[in-house]
Design goal:
447 residues, alpha+beta, 12-stranded mixed sheet, 18% strand
Length: 447
């Protein structure tokens, strides 16, 4: 509450400062007009005693509204303006010096942007634009004010880290509700969100940040950085040995190679906060890879992964194709696949272009490939969850521990096997039992 109060005070201070500057300017204009009328009597730039010249406010030469809608400007007033919007108070110089206070009211949920089923019913997709009405939720407030969510999200305001994690997931999959996502989409079918707002994912990562990381840190090829290219139905990895110097990485990029940063959370605070917070919601490790692809290039062959993937498009555009798993064994796999050839996969179930601000989710086992368009580069981050986090993985660890404890505590588990157990146990005798319908011997009477 203290932080909210401080934000309101700062916002009100901006308004008071604007009001004082406006009043001083009006007084100066009144004096100037009076002097002009008295000494010169000129009417060239005077209408009804009021100057037609546009008033100049010393500290408000840029409209606060314009700053509030910009995802990149970091002007002090703009930051305060955005904070003001998050508190549901709107104030700008265009209000004729009057403070406007607006409390967002609950709206009919039917007016919210909704996701619709794709034609083949295997993909859920949503597309929504700037003029749609939203409600009082933080994600929805940022949507309405055209403010990047990560600039408004403050982890310290949440006493329960799970609530903070849920809010982050809501931002990633908006407008789909988290409960609906888990019940209908999670591990079942892909989700495509076309937002038509390039700044929606702003503040998470950028090409400039990748360049800074390369220059300021000692990254190594194959450990932190991969440079790859998929050409003529074959993927090539060009990782040299040693440190990934920025000049070397950008040279590979200029030659058409994709650059993959394997652990951006190590060097980016925003990525670290995102991953560490989402872990509270999914109950599993959350990782991320950043992919930078030059125009008209593809870095990886068709394949499937062993993770639930959330693809957040940050810059440029990228063409994506998704395919069904080839058989039952490849549904929700425990391990990633190798590289497929084009003739080994079927027709795509989804063929779309992601633009900055869009999101694509697909379950593990979904075969996919992506390439950038000829006229622009592509930067996206893939957030991964649920790797090796299945019931089978859990039991694989629990059963040996339980068995070890049982052997230690119960002498029956330490008793010898009956001498004739090999005559009726094992796969070799399973068909005999099933054909005869007889119950196998119970074992030796040896005590």
């Amino acid at each position: 509450m203290a932080q909210n109060t401080a934000t309101r005070v700062s916002a009100f201070a901006i308004y008071q400062r604007y009001k004082e500057e406006k009043e001083k300017d009006e007084k100066r204009q009144a004096v100037k007009t009076k002097n002009v009328n008295a000494s010169v009597g000129g009417k060239e730039n005077i209408v009804n005693g009021v100057s037609k010249a546009r008033p100049r406010f010393k500290n408000f030469s840029i409209r606060l509204d314009d700053l509030a809608y910009s995802p990149t400007l970091k002007h002090k007033i703009g930051i305060k303006r955005r904070r003001l919007l998050h508190q549901n108070i709107s104030c700008s110089p265009g209000d004729e010096g009057q403070k406007r206070k607006k409390i967002h009211q609950d709206v009919d949920k039917s007016s919210l942007p909704t996701a619709q089923n794709n034609n083949n019913n295997n993909v859920l997709s949503a597309s929504y634009r700037e003029d749609e009405t939203v409600g009082p939720n933080l994600v929805e407030q940022c949507w309405k004010s055209r403010t990047p969510f990560l600039e408004a999200f403050d982890l310290d305001q949440y006493e329960d880290s799970r609530e903070a994690a849920k809010m982050l997931l809501k931002w990633i999959i908006y407008p789909v509700e988290c409960d609906k996502f888990l019940k209908e989409l999670w591990e079942r079918k892909p989700l495509l969100l076309k937002r038509h707002r390039s700044y929606y994912n702003s503040g998470l990562f950028s090409s400039a940040e990748l360049d800074r990381i390369l220059r300021e840190n000692c990254l190594e090829f194959s450990v932190n950085i991969d440079v790859t290219r998929y050409h003529n139905d074959k993927r090539e990895t060009y990782n040299p040995e040693g440190r990934a110097h920025a000049s070397v990485v950008w040279d590979y990029y200029q030659k058409g190679c994709s650059v993959r940063l394997l652990n951006p959370q190590t060097y980016s605070d925003a990525m670290w906060r995102l991953n560490s917070t989402l872990q509270e919601y999914f109950g599993s490790c959350v990782g991320a890879n950043v992919y930078l692809t030059p125009p008209g290039s593809q870095g990886f062959a068709p394949h499937y992964d062993d993770i639930e993937a959330f693809v957040l498009q940050l810059e440029g555009k990228k063409k994506w194709k998704l395919y069904f798993p080839r058989n039952e064994k490849e549904i929700l796999p425990r391990f990633s696949s190798g590289n497929f050839k084009q003739e080994e996969i079927s027709d795509p179930i989804l063929d779309i272009t992601l633009e900055a601000g869009d999101m694509l989710y697909f379950p593990r086992g979904t075969i996919h490939q992506a390439y950038s368009l000829p006229d622009t580069h592509s930067l996206h981050v893939t957030v991964s969850a649920a790797q090796r986090n299945s019931w089978g993985d859990l039991l694989e660890k629990l059963v040996p521990m339980a068995l070890s404890l049982a052997v230690e505590q119960d002498k029956e588990f330490r008793a010898s096997l009956p001498p004739d157990y090999m005559s009726y146990m094992g796969v070799v005798h399973s068909t005999d039992v099933s054909e005869s319908g007889q119950t196998p011997p119970t074992g030796s009477s040896y005590q």
